[in-house]
Structures are given as structure tokens and as C-alpha cells.
Amino acid sequence: MTNISKQASRKALETRKNAGISPVAPLDIWKLLQDAQISLIKEPLESEISGLFLRKGSSEVILVNTNNTLGHQNFTAAHEYFHLKFNPELKNRVCVAGQFSPKNILEQEADYFAAYLLAPDEAINYFLGRRFNWKPKKLKLSNIIATEQYFSMSHHAMLIRLVQTGRIGEQEAEQFKDNIISISLKANKTVPNVESG
């Protein structure tokens, strides 16, 4: 775990604790924003933009691009929340969330924060143990999809969290990264409500 990842994890757990959210419960990001009195705009945007935030005086606004999957929208909302809460020097920022790119430290930390806020290690362990009686063994695609749906996260972000928690390796994550519907169909599985992104 990198220093940025550690800092983001600490901030995410602190945010959950301060909001009275159990470290093992799924998080309703929209309720968290509402409780924090952050205005939210959800609109389809014809661009690669995931979202943005604006801050003026005591007013705070997050815009989320609804052309993305619901899991990506949730991730974007958590990402923008990070900027509002932990980057007071920023007044606004347009983001393409979920890149986890080390080229931009602020964006990378916001991505890690969003991933940890939506699915802390403890919550992933609890869910896998309860739902699949998980022991150190290989996760199937259906397990991964059920996990991302439980935490309302994008497929990409869940793969990163599962690698970070040691549940899958980097090579497995690459295999499951793209074409999850066709992979699932080849495995003769049905996957309801699948979201990638």
C-alpha cells in the first residue's frame, strides 16, 4: 500500500466514523452528501467528464455525469466529496474519476478515497465471508459482480479494491477487466444488472 493509498484509507474510515456509518455496512453516498448539505446535480454530459465540484463561500455543489454507469456515478460522487472535504484550497475541479493515475496526486488520492469510502477492507472481508463463506480461494466472476453490486461500485474500482485486499491478483484483475458480459456468457452464467466502468 502506497502512502497516498494509506492516507486515503485513513480519511475514508474517519469519514465513515464521523458520519456514524459502520465500517462493514454498504454506504449510501447520496445520503452522505445530503447529510453534509452538499447540493447535487445529476445530468447527462456529452463528454468523458465524470463530474465536477464547485465551492463558493459556504455553498458546495457536486455535478455527476449520468451517462456513466450507476456504479461509476457513485464512485464519482465519493471522489468529488473528497475534493470538497480534503482540498479546501480548490474552488472547483472537473474530474475523470476512477483513473487511479499517479500522474496527478490529488486525483489519485481522491480515487483511492472513493474506493475505500465505498468499500473498506473490513466491509469487503465481512461481505465475502457472509455471502460466499469465502476462504483464501479463487473468486469467480459472479462473486466479483455480486460484490461490486453490493457496494454500488464500478467494476473497475471493485477490481482495484480486490487486488488491494489480496483477494485477486493483478493478472486475474486484467482478465476480468473488459468484456465481463461476454466472459460471463462463455462461462454459461447469467449476470443480472451488470455494470462495467
Task: Provide the fold topology.
Layout: H1 3-18, H2 29-35, E1 39-43, E2 51-56, E3 59-65, H3 70-86, E4 92-95, H4 105-118, H5 121-132, H6 141-150, H7 155-164, H8 170-177, H9 180-186
Parallel strand pairs: 1-3
Antiparallel strand pairs: 2-3, 2-4
Helix pairs in contact: 1-4, 3-4, 6-7, 7-8
The termini sit apart by 23 Å
N-to-C series of helices and strands: HHEEEHEHHHHHH
Strand order of the largest sheet: 1-3-2-4
Taken from the alpha-carbon principal axes, the silhouette is globular
How much strand content do the residues show? 5-15%
The overall pLDDT average reads: 88
Number of helices: 9
Radius of gyration: 16 Å
Structure in words:
With 197 residues, this protein is of the alpha+beta class. The two termini are 23 Å apart. Helix content is 51%, strand content 11%. The chain contains nine helices and four strands. It has two domains: 116 residues, Arc Repressor Mutant, subunit A (Orthogonal Bundle), CATH 1.10.10.2910; 66 residues, no CATH class. It has a four-stranded mixed sheet, with helices on one face.
Task: Give a brief rundown of this model.
The protein is α+β, with helices and mostly antiparallel strands and 197 residues long. Helices cover 51% and strands 11% of the residues.
Descriptive keywords:
9 helices, alpha+beta, 197 residues, globular, four-stranded mixed beta sheet, Arc Repressor Mutant, subunit A, disordered C terminus, 51% helix
